[in-house]
Amino acid sequence: MINKLVSLLSTLIVFLICTGSVFAQPFAYVANVSSNDVSVIDTSTNTVVVPSIPVGTAPEGIAITPDGTHAYVTNANSSDVSVIDTSTNTVVVPSIPLGSSPQSIAITPDGTHAYVANVLSNDVSVIDTSTNTVVVPSIPLGSIPGGIAITPDGMHAYVTNVLSNDVSVIDTSTNTVVVPSIPVGSSPGGIAITPDGTHVYVTNVNSGDVSVIDTSTNTVVVPSIPVGTAPQSIAITPDGTHAYVANFVTNDVSVIDTSTNTVVVPSIPVGSTPEGIAITPDGTHAYVTNVGSNDVSVIDTSPNTVVVPSIPVGSNPGAIAITPSPPPSQFINLSPNTATNYLLTDHTVTATIDIDGIPEPGVFVTFEVISGPNAGLVSIPDNGECSPNDDCRTDADGEVSWTYTGGNRFPGTDMIVASFFSEISEMVEESNTVEKIWVRPPINTPTLSEWGLIAMGSILGIVGFMVMRRRKMTA
What we know:
The chain has 2 helices and 38 strands. The protein has helices at residues 2-19, 448-474, and strands at 27-32, 37-42, 47-54, 59-64, 70-75, 80-85, 90-97, 102-107, 113-118, 123-128, 133-140, 145-150, 156-161, 166-171, 176-183, 188-193, 199-204, 209-214, 219-226, 231-236, 242-247, 252-257, 262-269, 274-279, 285-290, 295-300, 305-312, 317-322, 330-335, 338-342, 346-355, 358-359, 366-371, 386-387, 399-405, 412-422, 427-430, 434-439. A hairpin with a 4-residue loop joins strand 10 (123-128) and strand 11 (133-140).
C-alpha cells in the first residue's frame, strides 16, 4: 500500500513538473533549431523542467504574450508558426502558415497581434492572436528582414533588413511602412527598444557594432558602438539602463550603458557561439543561448558575471524568451468573520489591505452593510466612524476600522463588506463578507432568594396596610 502511494505521489510530482504548475514564474523558453523543439527552463532553479516541446521545422524565433499564457514560435523551414499553451506546455496550434522562412517574431503590448519577419519573402506577416489567423499576409520591406521589435505603446514595429543594411518602420494601425528606411551598420540583425520607447538599439553583424535610433525623428543618433565580433541578439534591462549584446564569434556578451552609449563591460565569456539573449522581468539575470555548445548560460547583471555556465537544452538553441512576472496581487480582508451584539450597541469591523503580503497604507476603504436590519448603512469619512484614520484610509499596517451602531430595534443579521479601488487591476475590489448578529438584551429573571425577598416585602406591605386601616377605623 505504501509503495503504491509513493508511486502515485511520484507520478503526480512528475506531472506537475512537466506542466510547470508547481513552479513560480518566470520561465525561459528556448527554440532549438536543429532538434525542432522548445525547451523550458525554470529560472528560479535554473533547471530544464520541459526538455522538449515538438514544434515545426527549424524553429528560429519565439515570443511570449504579455499575459504569459502563450508562446509563439516561428518555424523557418516549414514556414509557419506554432503556438504553445504555457500552462500545459503543449502545442495548441500546430501551424499558422506564413511567408517564406519566418524568423523573428514580436507581439504587441496588448497581446492582440503578432508580427513576423519572413526572411526569404522580404516581408512581415501579422497574426490575430485571438483567432490565430493571418490578418495581414504581407507588408513588403527591405532585403532579408531579420529582427523585429515593437514600441511600448504598440504604435510602431521596427524591422532590421540584413542585406539592405537598414531598418524599416511599420505603422501598426495601418500596417504600412511609414518612413523611408533608416540606414545603420553592415548586416543589421538583432533589435531592441528601450522601455520608454525613445530609442532603438540595432546590432550590426558584419561591422561588429551597435547603432542607436531616436524614435522621435527616426534618425541614427549613435552610428557605432563597437562590441564583440558578429553581434547577434540584443536585450535591454527593464529599467532601460543597460543593453546586453550576444557576440557570436568571440563567445561573449558585451554590456552597454544606455545613458552614455558606451561599453561598460567589454566581455563576459559564455558558451560557444552565443546567439539569443533575454533578461528576466526583475532585471537581475540575463539568459544566453549558445548554439555551438547546445546550452544556456546565466549572467548575474549586478556583478556581470556568469553564475550558471551551462544549462543543457536541445540542439542548436537560438531564440529565447522569458515569461513576464505575474502582476502583484492586491488583497483585502475583513474581520471578524462573525460577532454577536445587543441591539443599540456599537460594532467594529477591520479591513486589511496588502500587496503580495506587504501592508498597503493610504488606501481609501468604503464599508457597507449590504443586507440585514441595518442594510444600506455606508461609512462616512471624517465623521468619527473610522479609525485610526478618520478619513477611512489604511494606516502603516494596511488596516482601517469602521464602527457603527445597531440602531434598528429589531434583531437580525447584518452582512458587511469593505471595498477599495485597486490601481493594479483598475477596478473596485471587494472583501470577504462578514456577519453581525443583533440580539435583544436578556430579561433578568429573579433568583429563588430574590423571589423570597419579593414575597416577604409584599406580605409586610399588606400587613402594614391592614394595620394602618384598623387604626383609622378605631379612631
